[in-house]
Write a structure and sequence with these properties.
Helix content is 16%, strand content 35%. The chain has one domain: Ferrous iron transport protein A (FeoA) (SH3 type barrels), CATH 2.30.30.90. By secondary structure, the chain is α+β, with helices and mostly antiparallel strands.
Length: 79
């Protein structure tokens, strides 16, 4: 499943990221924050607007906000 479909507070492992779907600067920023294959993540919060943007992603001790389109490029498997 993709990260945007992961239920709240469920831990998952990133199995693949389609970096070609992201602008290179955005991909570089996410990689610098540890969003890459093998990382353990969970969705902490979703936005309240219609598209539920942004998504607050917990990775390690950090919380990172990303857009739904970015989350759709990230494949995860629940742990």
């Amino acid at each position: 499943m993709t990260l945007d479909l992961l239920p709240l507070e469920i831990r998952a492992r990133i199995v693949a990221v389609d970096w070609t779907r992201l602008v290179p600067e955005e991909a570089q920023r996410l990689q610098a924050l540890g969003v890459d294959q093998g990382a353990t993540v969970s969705v902490a919060h979703r936005g309240i607007f219609a598209g539920q943007d942004p998504i607050a992603l917990s990775i390690g001790r950090m919380t990172v906000a990303l857009r739904r389109v970015h989350a759709q490029a990230i494949e995860v498997e629940a742990l």
